[in-house]
UniProtKB/TrEMBL annotation:
Stated name of the protein: Bacterioferritin
Binding site for Fe cation 1: 51
PANTHER family named in the record: BACTERIOFERRITIN
Record's GO cellular component terms: cytosol
Single GO MF descriptor: ferroxidase activity
GO biological process, one term: iron ion transport
Function (record text): Iron-storage protein, whose ferroxidase center binds Fe(2+), oxidizes it using dioxygen to Fe(3+), and participates in the subsequent Fe(3+) oxide mineral core formation within the central cavity of the BFR protein shell.
Residues annotated for Fe cation 2 binding in this entry: 51, 94
Gene: bfrB
EC numbers for this chain: 1.16.3.1
Similarity-based family: Belongs to the bacterioferritin family.
The entry's keywords: Heme, Iron, Iron storage, Metal-binding
Species annotation: Psychrobacter pacificensis
The UniProt record lists the keyword Cell membrane: no
Pfam family, one: Ferritin
């Protein structure tokens, strides 16, 4: 199947953002785990895996359209040095991704590629959920204070 070159380019742009997210969220998960914040680690790691699955779907779609997935042009990974900064870095990436994904969705509509559009809407919906979760974490940090929030993210190994 021969796909539209603009659509393939847009899918590759979304793929690039997703690949940044995999690395950023995985690194943040391991950083907070190192700090002993198992609950936060679990949430960040889960999102990294979701991004990996979406990247896999994007790669498959690009190949089906006759394109070549671009795994080389990666942007900057934002690394937080404390818990509030980790949350902020991930939220900034989500907002950046949202714009790129919505532009790609609009292009797919224009080009009548509704299968690619459906894939992108699925990814957008997942990213919106994660963005909402991150905003909730920021609100919790603001209302509880960073120290109490951090305490809430420590899992007690003695619990059943």
């Amino acid at each position: 199947m021969k796909g539209d070159k603009e659509v393939i380019r847009a899918l590759n742009k979304v793929l690039g953002q997703s690949l940044i997210a995999i690395n950023q969220y995985f690194l943040h998960a391991r950083i907070v785990r190192h700090w002993g914040l198992e609950a936060l680690n679990d949430s960040l790691y889960k999102q990294s895996i979701a991004e990996m699955k979406w990247s896999d779907d994007l790669i498959a779609r690009i190949l089906l359209l006759g394109g070549l997935p671009n795994l080389q042009e990666l942007g900057k990974v934002l690394v937080g040095e404390d818990v509030p900064e980790v949350i902020d870095c991930n939220l900034r990436l989500e907002k950046q991704k949202f714009s790129i994904i919505t532009d790609a969705i609009t292009l797919c509509e224009t080009k009548s590629d509704y299968v690619s559009r459906h894939l992108l809407v699925t990814i957008k919906d997942g990213n919106e959920e994660y963005q909402d979760w991150l905003e909730t974490q920021e609100d919790l940090i603001e209302s509880m204070g960073a120290e109490r929030y951090i305490q809430s993210q420590i899992s007690d190994d003695d619990e059943p």
